[in-house]
Amino acid sequence: MKKFELYWKDLNIGSIVETNWDMRSSGDIVYKFDYLAEPSENELMSDFVKFSIQDSILLGEGVEDDDLYLSQAEEEKKFLDLIVDTKTDWYIINEKGEKEIILCPIFHEDNEITWMTDPKYF
């Protein structure tokens, strides 16, 4: 099992253990901050993790992407800098200290996460 540290910009979000790999990798995350704390010192990221978890729950229940988009479009706007990242802000660092640029990860219930290496940086 591979281990990584997940970052957005300089913020260490957590430690990941990869449990599955296919087109996307998935695994378990141990957060470096309590995203459920009120108020959180990382409020934007905490809100985004909660939003992402809710999205993954709804998609798992069969809610279509279009319906999901319409119902959450307003809330999603505040996370556009996190979701539509055209820079290299999302990345993981492996056990050797090597940095890999990734697309915005998807956070799930039970401290699970899915991510994919950004194809622009292979």
Radius of gyration: 14 Å
Q: Tell me the helix content.
A: 25-40%
Structural class: alpha+beta
**How many domain units?**
1
| Uncertain parts | none
Number of E-state strands: 7
Overall mean pLDDT: 86
Major sheet: order of its strands? 5-4-1-2-3-7-6
User: What coarse outline follows from CA principal-axis ratios?
Assistant: globular
- Beta-strand portion reads 25-35%
Number of helices: 3
The main pleated sheet reads as: 7 strands, antiparallel
Order of helices and strands: EEEHHHEEEE
N→C terminal distance: 21 Å
Could you walk me through the main structural features you see in this protein, from its secondary elements to its overall organization?
- By secondary structure, this protein is an alpha+beta fold.
- The chain has one domain.
- The chain contains three helices and seven strands, in the order E-E-E-H-H-H-E-E-E-E.
- The protein has a seven-stranded antiparallel sheet.
- Helix 1 runs antiparallel to helix 2.
